[in-house]
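Build the 3D complex.
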Amino acid sequence: MDDFYRDYILDHYRNPRNFGHLEHPDVVAEDTNPLCGDRIRMELLVDANGIVADVRFFGKGCAISQASASMLTETVKGRPLADVARLTKEAVLENVGIGISPARLKCAMLGLKVLKTAAVGQLASWPDED
Amino acid sequence: MRACVADDASKLARIVDDFPILRERTVRGRRLVYLDSAATSQKPQCVIDALVTYYSTYNANIHRGVYEIAERATDAFEGARGKVARFVNANPRELVWTRNTTEAINLVAHSWGGANIKPGDVILVTQLEHHSNLVPWQELAARTGARLTYVPVDDRGLHVLDDLDDLLDGVKLVALSHVSNTLGTIAPLDIIVPRAHAAGAVVLVDGAQAAPNMPVDVKALDVDFYAFSGHKMCAPTGIGALYGKRALLEAMPPFLTGGDMIRTVTYDGATYNDLPWKFEAGTSNIAGAIGFGAAVEYLSQIGMEWVREHERSLVSYAFERLRELEPRGLVVYGPRDPDLVADVISFNYADIHPHDLASILDGEGVCIRAGHHCTMPLMEKMGWPATARASFYIYNTRQDVDALIDALGKAAAIFKIDRAGAAGALGG
Ligand SMILES: Cc1ncc(COP(=O)(O)O)c(C=O)c1O
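Done.
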């Protein structure tokens, strides 16, 4: 677990990318991790071609949930919304790297769950349980 | 008395030795440092043995068996009731077995509450209650049209009693915890209980965090109901107790109905059993009760005065050691006074989220809890997103506190607390 907290994770935790709110988002979703109360909100701007033109996330929580959400915003910016709906937990694991313990997997997956909820337009299941 | 004299050290070593998990278990090659006893305590060998002996030598259902092992099981079950009752200075007839504190409180909310709470009545709780001593009252209020009001707590987590008499005006029931599981605050029952009674209110005390950690005398406290859980005081999970004053219990309707709680049943109806069995429908947790009896016997041998002094001394030492980290952004919440705190210390370290802290500490073999500790309204009021919580019990040592401090040092190194400029604590 110690080697999980690499510099880039701490950097995303302390300097989250695309953090805040959009003025006129097209889709918005929000959820919490009932295990620990971490909360994440995702706001997307989708252009006429169905591309995620801009994205913001807002949240509170542990380094794992916040860094993972921050990295995801970079993953999805400029990609078709349909792709976002099809993202799997591997996308998150690729971002955050190895070493996450099973007990903390939900923390890492919260951002993706919220993003997929936004993309699909209905509550998405936990990506690690699919 | 408070000094760690040689006798205390050898007594402590003997206590640690009584707990197989602490004697034998290692985490990644390190000694297990268990600082989460407020969630559930570890179990001594004598309690484990009591369960094994019951299941392997006299397992039988209780009360109506005429054969030898059934009689023995009944004697052990009722004997355990006597031990647990004596432990809190109650009469065994006034001690009802439940699954845990939560069920004990729900029993009162449904049975006493259903019979006594009317539309417009007021139920008074405090701002630091565990969800178990809050949600049942919210539900009761919603069912009956009663109103829930709160005794405030200040920024240190101490009860604010300035307006107590106004708050108590017209109150039917006061429900409060003896010790806060989030901040360790010991409630001033000596002030609150007499004034609640003077106002005509019935008083229920949630003793989940007090009964394990200090001498409790329900008669001296003069409380009407006292709820506690075995698993936080060396007993197995799934067994708890409700003390209630006899006159109140006698007048209350049953909570759950079915076997064991009846005297006679006809096709037209039933009459109920005497106290305390009236409230014990169905086959009880027999092994659990026997284990609970063994647990309080064990605690009584150690002495609850000793337990309280031991924890006071540990908490005091932990406050001292944690203070060393304050310049680097460590914040301790709660009263921060060993005389006002039982077994629990809540804190945050710079901008490290408590879940990350708990994960890193786990890597060092140190078990702490992180989150809202089932007190979400309190966390919200205080503005803390979450806290880390270390809690202490009879088997914890100063070396455990040192291990906590060392592990916090490791977390600080991983999170580069110094270099990051200790971006301020998470809350408060
Ligand atoms: C103060 C307090 N009340 C109630 C409870 C609930 O106890 P149980 O889960 O054993 O019912 C706890 C346990 O966490 C507690 O600390």
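The two ends of chain A are 24 Å apart (CA to CA).
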